[in-house]
């Protein structure tokens, strides 16, 4: 095992992340909980196994091939797998079969394929719609103006369960700007509450406090747990 992946480092980092989450919840005056999804992209299965042993049960992956290899290596464990990367149309069949959640649905075409391809012996696939809240620069995510129409269409697909919204705001270290972006997603989420949403997937290593203050119910944490990614 590489030095940077030593188990005691992982446990220390996990404790630090959990403390950050708890402090943010306290500051927000919230009594509910936040689901921690550990984002394992670029990190080998042995590292995910350490995280599992430290108590993590939710894992997020961005790249299908990489994820499938880890799922195979960790098949004996009780893991909830979240797909958080761009969903390519030619990958929907495998994603629909191998994941419990997809956070990055941003078109009806992809949603319909996932619904059609979700194996019948599995429960409906949990999905979040990815929203483009930072405008111009970023390419992924549905535009806020088109969100309601998409959400209504997705909510009636038989093999999907629409759970909530996800966004990846433009990275910034400005805390007020972080909060502003998350507040926008929160407002969109509340405007769709009639569709039964209960998951607000927002917040990463650099901005989880801002996200939790604005109501995140699920944070996706990579580098704060596993260290910096190579490349
Ligand atoms: C990589 C990634 C994360 C985690 O990012 P960190 O900054 O390493 O915590 C979260 N969400 C998505 C969609 C990602 O691609």
In short:
This protein has 231 residues and is an alpha/beta fold.
Describe this entry's structure for a reader:
The protein has 231 residues and is of the alpha/beta class. Helix content is 42%, strand content 16%. The chain is built from nine helices and eight strands. Strands 7-6-5-4-3-2-1-8 form an eight-stranded parallel β-sheet. Strand 4, helix 5 and strand 5 form a beta-alpha-beta unit. Helix 4 crosses helix 5. The longest helix is centred in the first third of the chain and has 22 residues. The radius of gyration is 17 Å and the shape is globular. 39% of the residues are buried. The model has no long low-confidence stretch (mean pLDDT 95). The structure holds pyridoxal-5'-phosphate. The site of pyridoxal-5'-phosphate (PLP) has 13 residues, from strand 8 and helix 9.
What structural class do the secondary elements suggest? alpha/beta
> What is the average per-residue confidence, as pLDDT, rounded to a whole number?
95
Low-confidence stretches: none
Ligands bound to this protein structure:
pyridoxal-5'-phosphate
